[in-house]
């Protein structure tokens, strides 16, 4: 998709994003706290890493859309995915994530512009002069495509060695361009999208140690010389061998005191039960204690797709059930569980959930399916809203009765309103894309 088309798409979906925000506000008003809404109440975002190839899974998309206010493409914006051949950019998978996020009113973190890993082979074969040109062209090409659409970019990722030396990591950029490549990348990034926050991101820098000291010294130097750096990302991958450091909050604070925001960018904590929950609480409380800690991102939606899946490090298990760690994070953020949640059977309150999946797709249109599931009590009727991008139109609908207000379709049952506790039904529809492939936004389901 060209930059011009992306600008038009963003403008055309402005109403959709606003509708998603209104839906979130309504959700909050009904006391159905989620990670994103609870974090927003603390002036922060709560995000997750997203893989484009999982967005078609109904439970994945429903959990993402319900709980999170920010997304980070897991691999889809890395160099090998976006510029596999020099000068030839490929944005399809990343566009899918950005479009989905925009349709839900979520922010997007860009990850990552310059990194030693996941480089196409042609990058390593370049001489110094060509490599400098290629690095700057890549930054301009990727940031230019998404100009105005990305909240924060990880401009440079993992440029320091792990361990006790605090030295720079060997990479094509470090070895051929020297220490100055990081500064150059940040200056190029500022010119490419002046509105985006520019971050340095690394791991094992969560406490005060040789590596974090080296990053600290670099950031202090950049701030003193006017190098454009706005934030520092702390990946925060923890387990029993690498626990949450006792000086985690103090370390975040000392970076914030340099005049940069701090963000927890790739959080996951191996473990289970109350011990895992307690560690997640420590991280959230540390962020809340630092005024310039602007948000937290967990590295994945569900344990089953985690890069550390055997360690069950996330907030939702493989069945998308909330773990004790989820409850602990929500509580630490000042939220509370929804008393009408389907996971709380027998609470006497009629409730339902609505989840969306695209069941068929072709160049000019697609079929969508919304599944309605009753909560812990039987229901006699339900209502769900579908907000379409401005260009799109519905040409057919089945198993429901629609009413329209602008591009918002309110659907009630035709014959399928009565559901037993935990039972499901649904409705389907055919959409003419009219130039927009963005997903519709599904509002909260109400039941009686």
From TrEMBL:
List of catalytic residues: 266 (nucleophile)
CBM2 domain segment(s): 345-448
GO MF annotation list: endo-1,4-beta-xylanase activity; polysaccharide binding
Keyword Signal: yes
Keyword terms: Carbohydrate metabolism, Glycosidase, Hydrolase, Polysaccharide degradation, Signal, Xylan degradation
GO process annotations (BP): xylan catabolic process
Catalytic activity field: Endohydrolysis of (1->4)-beta-D-xylosidic linkages in xylans
Keyword Signal: yes
Signal peptide limits: 1-31
UniProt domain GH10: residue ranges: 29-332
Enzyme Commission no: 3.2.1.8
Superkingdom of the source species: Bacteria
PANTHER family hit by this protein: BETA-XYLANASE, GLYCOSYL HYDROLASE
Family: Belongs to the glycosyl hydrolase 10 (cellulase F) family.
UniProt-recorded name of the protein: Beta-xylanase
Classification lineage: Bacteria, Bacillati, Actinomycetota, Actinomycetes, Kitasatosporales
């Amino acid at each position: 998709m060209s930059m011009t088309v992306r600008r038009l798409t963003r403008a055309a979906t402005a109403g959709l994003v606003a509708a998603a925000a209104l839906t979130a506000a309504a959700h909050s008003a009904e006391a159905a706290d989620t990670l994103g809404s609870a974090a927003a109440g603390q002036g922060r975002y709560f995000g997750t890493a997203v893989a484009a190839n999982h967005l078609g899974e109904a439970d994945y998309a429903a959990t993402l859309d319900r709980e999170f206010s920010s997304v980070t493409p897991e691999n889809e914006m890395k160099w090998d995915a976006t510029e596999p051949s020099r000068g030839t950019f490929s944005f399809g998978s990343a566009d899918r994530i950005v479009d989905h996020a925009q349709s839900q009113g979520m922010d997007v973190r860009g990850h990552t512009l310059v990194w030693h890993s996941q480089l196409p082979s042609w990058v390593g074969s370049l001489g110094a002069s060509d490599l400098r040109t290629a690095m700057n062209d890549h930054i301009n090409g990727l940031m230019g495509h998404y100009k105005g659409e990305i909240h924060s970019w990880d401009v440079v990722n993992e440029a320091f060695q792990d361990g006790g030396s605090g030295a720079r990591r060997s990479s094509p950029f470090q070895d051929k361009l020297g220490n100055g490549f990081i500064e150059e990348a940040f200056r190029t990034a500022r010119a490419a999208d002046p509105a985006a926050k520019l971050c340095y991101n690394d791991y094992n820098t969560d406490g005060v140690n040789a590596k974090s000291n080296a990053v600290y010294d670099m950031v202090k130097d950049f701030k003193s010389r006017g190098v454009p750096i706005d934030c520092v990302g702390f990946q925060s991958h923890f387990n029993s061998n690498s626990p949450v450091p006792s000086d985690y909050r103090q370390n975040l604070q000392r970076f914030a005191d340099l005049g940069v925001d701090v963000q927890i960018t790739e959080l996951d904590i191996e473990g289970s039960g109350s011990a895992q929950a307690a560690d997640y609480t420590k991280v959230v409380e540390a962020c809340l204690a630092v005024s310039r800690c602007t948000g937290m991102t967990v590295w994945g939606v569900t344990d089953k797709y985690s890069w550390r899946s055997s360690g069950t490090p996330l907030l939702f298990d493989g069945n998308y059930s909330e773990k004790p760690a989820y409850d602990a994070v929500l509580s630490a953020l000042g939220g509370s569980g929804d008393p009408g949640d389907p996971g709380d059977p027998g609470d006497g309150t009629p409730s339902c959930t609505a989840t969306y999946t695209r069941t068929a797709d072709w160049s000019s249109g697609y079929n969508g399916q919304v599944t309605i599931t009753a909560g812990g009590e039987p229901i006699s009727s339900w209502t769900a809203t579908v907000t379409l991008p401005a260009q799109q139109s519905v040409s057919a609908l089945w198993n429901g009765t629609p009413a329209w207000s602008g591009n918002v379709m309110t659907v009630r049952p035709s014959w399928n309103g009565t559901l037993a506790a935990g039972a499901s039904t649904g409705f389907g529809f055919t959409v003419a894309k009219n130039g927009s492939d963005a997903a519709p936004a599904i509002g909260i389901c109400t039941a009686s």
